[in-house]
Amino acid sequence: MTALPEPLSLWVETAPAPDRTGVPVPESADVAVLGAGIAGLTTALLLARGGRSVVVLEAERVAAGVSGHTTAKVSAQHGAKYADLTSRHGEKASQTYARTQTAALEWIAATAADLGIDCGFTRADSWVYTTREKTVDSLKREAEAAAAAGLPAAFTTDVGLDVPALGAVRTTGQAHFHPRRWLLGLAAEVERAGGTVVENARATALNGQTVRTSRGDVVAGEVVVATHYPVLDRGLYFARLEPVRDLVVAGPAAGNAAPEGMFLDADTHHSVRGYVEAGTPMVIAGGEHYRVGAHVHVERRYRRLADWADAHAGLHRVTHRWSAHDMSTVDLLPYVGRYLPGTKNLWVATGFGQWGMTGGTAAGHVLAARILGEPHPAADLFDPNRFDARSVFGVAEDNLTVAKYLIGDHVAALWRSEKLDDLAPGDAEVVRVGGELVAAHRDEAGRLHTVGAHCTHLGCLVSFNDAEKTWDCPCHGSRFGVDGEVVQGPAVRPLRRGPA
């Protein structure tokens, strides 16, 4: 395997977007949707079709964030989820979940065909497999639970991937696509339906019905927060979501034959799917799951993933690599509905647990129905303000992890004696300069970049991502560039510039 390329999403590179820099922020709208990813644009389109005036406010570019950095499997098979979902919430809840995800898949299929969106939508079967004897029985239970929930799922020992699989759950009739081409098509349709899509307008605050953005304010009757991680510090979402990251590598398929189907290892989380770009069959492989900002060598993990894909998926030359950022909830269900108990005009969609293509689409349908005053069968199930007693322990455990980073990292950093001059090109460290902690990185050209080491969200110390050259917060998943600019929320303010 040759050297890995610089991080760049295949989806972003191969789907140029129209220039919306001249689109102004309107003074008012019936609905302001924060975030131009799959949940936000689906919500916006359905509301625009329902007769509402809609503005979509995107901090950067359409589909260049989380939705443009995914493996883009459009599937109702969400790993080995249904057995746990049924055990925790009951068979009826599991059936409702399966129906909403399947309906989302079919809506994407029908809408892509109706609008002529060239997004490479391709039907494919999906496998969740294991190479470990101890996991076989749990996959048999998963197959039974998924089938009982209404999915076309069954246990099999036939897995079409070069791995020593002992068994798998196969779900037929699923799909994959090019996510950014799909979302650019949705954005264009929002505009054709009378909506407005504004880029480079980062939402920074909500005062009453006024959304404050970096490009001006808009007054909205309803506000939908579909920013992946909710950017408004209300509802304690930071305490109820776990930010995780998976790495992705892609390149031409060996033998000019892309994998047929979608594959996920139930134990290691390695995943594989095929894709054809400009006539070239490609392999897309994901894995190396870790918590955002954890003290890991991301570059080594990319290398490890590339080696695995070389050995098992026919990916001998990596041309693209990127990372997927996901939010998971403790009780396995997303948060889709009113932002807080009692709020009438503020809505949220988050926590899709690595399955945002159908999860975000389903969320758009739930939110649009509720805002338009229509019933939706998943409204209560996905309600962000639901109470699940078993979740209390999971939330407590996750917040102990946050406390470990918040306190432990500070203590460790205060004992470090590195000096800025000691940093070699390519190195980065949180160091003590005088009485303050500084996040310092010396780039390959020898230039020193220093910023405050405390995340502007809630003050945790950031950690350096050596592959993507970002400072990542392990507490709630915010990410910053080496000069402090916000790359990913929930933070909305940049890191303070540090000493030279």
Automatic annotation (TrEMBL):
GO molecular function: 2 iron, 2 sulfur cluster binding; metal ion binding; monooxygenase activity; oxidoreductase activity, acting on paired donors, with incorporation or reduction of molecular oxygen
Keyword terms of this UniProt record: 2Fe-2S, Disulfide bond, Iron, Iron-sulfur, Metal-binding
Iron listed as a keyword: yes
Secretion signal, residue range per the UniProt entry: none
InterPro entries per UniProt: FAD-dep_OxRdtase, FAD/NAD-bd_sf, Rieske_2Fe-2S, Rieske_2Fe-2S_sf, Rieske_Fe-S_prot_C, YhfW_C
Entry annotated with the keyword tRNA-binding: no
UniProt cross-references to PROSITE patterns, sorted A to Z: RIESKE (PS51296)
Domain of life: Bacteria
GO cellular component term, pick one: cytoplasm
Transmembrane segments: none
Domain Rieske: 415-500
Protein's recorded name: Glycine/D-amino acid oxidase
Organism of this sequence: Amycolatopsis pretoriensis
